[in-house]
Amino acid sequence: MGGKNLLMVGAGLSGAVIGRHLAELGHKVTVIDARDHIGGNCHTERDGDTGVMVHVYGPHIFHTDDEEVWEYVNRFERFMPYKNRVKTTVGGHVYSLPINLHTINQFYGRAMRPDEAKAFIEEQADTSIDDPQTFEEQALRFVGPDLYEAFFKGYTQKQWGCSPTELPASILKRLPVRFNYDDNYFAHRFQGMPENGYTAMIGRILDHEGIRVELGRKVTRAEAAAYDHVFYSGPLDGWFDYELGRLGYRTLDFERFTHDGDYQGTAVMNYGEVGVPYTRITEHKHFSPWESHEGSVLYREFSRECGPDDIPYYPIRLVDEKEMLSAYVDRAKTERGVSFVGRLGTYRYLDMDVTIREALDAARAWARAEELGETPPVFFVAPL
Ligand SMILES: Cc1cc2nc3c(=O)[nH]c(=O)nc-3n(C[C@H](O)[C@H](O)[C@H](O)COP(=O)(O)OP(=O)(O)OC[C@H]3O[C@@H](n4cnc5c(N)ncnc54)[C@H](O)[C@@H]3O)c2cc1C
């Protein structure tokens, strides 16, 4: 089998992992990214003044239950032990998240044991809500008004730019409370931080003789014809020049500031009140607890509607967006020689481990189709 000439649009995790897999199978891979760096939204870089490793597009913690994915990332970078422990400031007090026994006891000024706290929260829950339709109803049904107001209402409103009464109940699937003192934000078996940052790891994934990387250039649909196949990890609607409209996203603004010493004593501090315009403050040096830095780099994070010139971060995926998405999916299915991958190509929020899992599966599925002489799928995972 002769190697094919393949293009990866995007040098984030999707483009890098698919590109690496196919280069190892003997294909000729070109990776192009519009940005002047690799790594996509996982990009990390050391701050020139303080030496702190900064998560440029917002905090990224690696966590997974997928053993193959965990082995995969460890093949390219040493992962240091890291547990994500998030705090929130509400009403002049600092609480532990996700809501756990410590949060409940602190919030109500009590010393309840697990069973007592469970019974107490059940008393708070609004059992008159039979069939919760909205995020607010679901939260009230689970935890009652006090915890809802303190920990969900303001944060959700700031994050999504609308009232929790306008969001579907499905966002809050399970009871968001732990009746023990476990404050590890993620429940996955494997969790850690790449010793030298995500960009170093992705650089090593891309470091293969069959891969050529080009930065600082946006790929257009017209260029696809020059390749045997294109894996596109950019925005689905962008591929079609937004001809059916723009899929809705939330974007983030990061207000960077520095501090001498330790500003907040932890990596992530949420601010749940609507009166505080930002959703959280990230202190980047706490993501690398094995390093030591005098200075500190911090981000205040603001969430707002994504405009045409902004970076799309979180897909909104409410009823209107799903209708437009469905039209784009139909449109995409008439394309030849291109597959849509990753978080933007399929308009879904994807954690890094899921992105890698899907990228490995996509590369394998493409290689199989190629071997059998079949047309490769336009989507390896259905966006809807
Ligand atoms: C604020 C935030 C926090 C997150 N935190 C976590 C976390 O803690 N843990 C976790 O597991 N995951 C986290 N994620 C998810 C993580 O960022 C994604 O899983 C990952 O970035 C997806 O990789 P990707 O390659 O699909 O997309 P991206 O990283 O978005 O890469 C796509 C690349 O394509 C390029 N591109 C697009 N269009 C074109 C074009 N036409 N021509 C050339 N280049 C183009 C873009 O410049 C971009 O670099 C977070 C995401 C966000 C937004």
Automatic annotation (TrEMBL):
It comes from the Bacteria. Keywords: FAD, Flavoprotein, Isomerase. Residues 150-349 form the UDP-galactopyranose mutase C-terminal domain. Its cofactor is FAD. Belongs to the UDP-galactopyranose/dTDP-fucopyranose mutase family. This is UDP-galactopyranose mutase.
